[in-house]
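Morning!

This is the sequence you dropped in the shared folder:
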Amino acid sequence: MPAQEAQVTKNYTDPGPAGVAFPAMQGFGAVASSAAARPNAEIARDFLDLEFRMESGRALTSFSRFDGPISVAMTGNVPGTAKTEMSRLINRFRSEAGIDIGFAQAGEDASITVAFQPRAQMARVVPMAACFVVPRVQSWEEYRINRNSPEVDWTTVTKREHVAIFVPSDASPQEVRDCLNEETAQAMGPLNDLYHLPDSVFNDDNFNSVLTGFDMLILRMHYAPELRNGMNEAEAAKYVPALLARYNPAGTGGEADIKQIAPRSWVAAVEGAFGPRGSNASRLAASQRMLSIAMAQGWHDGRLAFSYYAKGRSLASSDPVQAVAALSQAGQIYRSIPGAQVHVAHVDMQLAAIALSAGQSDQAIAFADRAIPVVKRAENASLLATLMLIKAEALENEGRVAEAKALRLDSLGWARYGFGSERQVRARMGEIALLGARGHRG
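The structure's back. Tokens below.
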């Protein structure tokens, strides 16, 4: 599913500076993913939890994958950037995970069909999913006919032959890319997401939006010759240590921190804190439940940090002092976790927005400057544009008008990639301008 854009304030629909001309859309070049940086004994447990469980908590009794070369086709109203993004992704699968994958030839029965549908049409059938992957179908109509049948139940799959990915055709370029990254990886590989993974797209905190070195390692293992369709967890587990020693020799040794899967009560609280429905009050209450459960579980990892982040985010407009305290706790924990740099950048964006609203322009600039290089490496254009716009407002409040104007103009190319339409870009500009005006008055 796509990367969730952190909340700056409550929605603000002012159209923004109407006179600003929009430059060409920016894009990202080659990905330079870092290798997995955790001990193999820890990754081994994560691999099995990813492979033999689903996000719902249901167990998968059988390992499954494609046999032979994998082909990809795109259907429907395919967005202009989609083929380029899929080409980049296919190249990464081939070079980093050793997977034999390519675009389907004309008339070929594709292994994976990426079907683009209008968002409203998808929401009528699956209201809570931005994009999703389904086995044994190749079209939207086929899915609609079979959606309540065992045909599309992943727990019945022992070998993958045809899988469909459904993506909104009217999504922003970044959302399209994020959907292609996560859903194609899950179409081919593990079906679960784990909230305790700091270095993976297979995590519903949505901080990582493009596949990481850890993700490519998991996919390489998934297609190792030792594993076979139909294996159960115990059978697959016998091969995992040797596979990790072969594919990730740097992970040999080290002290493993084996984590248990988060309870459903905490996951439900996450959905309440970050879901599209509900009020600020209900989101705050859900974030408090997240934090209470995390503390009761004795967690000191990213799930505790995420709980503090959720609390700080929900308090940003109503109680900025408490919001800063919660966000600072989140940042402190994330900074202690290898591979969590982009998580810290999300925290810094929230702190920058609060500082801007409080008239602390120098602090807003400092937070933005710290986060921007990290966000560029993580390829999160919507977060990058937001940080640049916050910094531009802070510069303007300090009287550095020319710098602010230049930075604001630079941000718009990234904003077009991250947010999509000019209307949405102007809405975000107006949202941040409101923060700047509030801070300037203060």
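Headline: The beta strands are 70-76, 101-103, 112-117, 132-135, 163-168.

More detail when I'm at my desk.
O.
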